[in-house]
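Here is a typical sample entry:
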Amino acid sequence: MERFGGAGGYEAAAAEQLSRQQERHYRLLSELQALVKALPSPCQQRLSYTTLSDLALALLDGTVFEIVQGLLEIQHLTEKNLYSQRLQLHSEHRGLKQELFHRHKEAQQCCRPHNLPLLRAAQQREMEAPAFCTPGWQDHELDGRVPELTFHRCPSSHLLLHPCFFTINT
């Protein structure tokens, strides 16, 4: 007999849990219906009672929250990756800028005094150029065209790539 009494207790607990779940379902359904009432009329007509009931059941199931949690984790990982890429690009840009300053200094030391103002003006234009300010400019500004370089005479072979000694023809 006690065996049946134990089973009756299990059935009562299951019925109580089902009752609580139905109560939560109705509460979620009524909240969803209140939200739908705030929508414009054409949108309200598209959301039937069955659709809202299924949505309330999906919310009770917890699957939606697991999906959202997974998406949040993916978003955080993506943001972390993008931030590290940004830091790396910033570091590379800083290195390029220092290299450019050193090349400018070398060019000024090798330059004859009467050409120094012209060289400094060209270097200033190079520093202010949007191409220098934006990493990866080579890929975007030429639209797939291959530039032709025209080299001019220069005093030293290590300054060949200095912008004062060549022009880019696109």
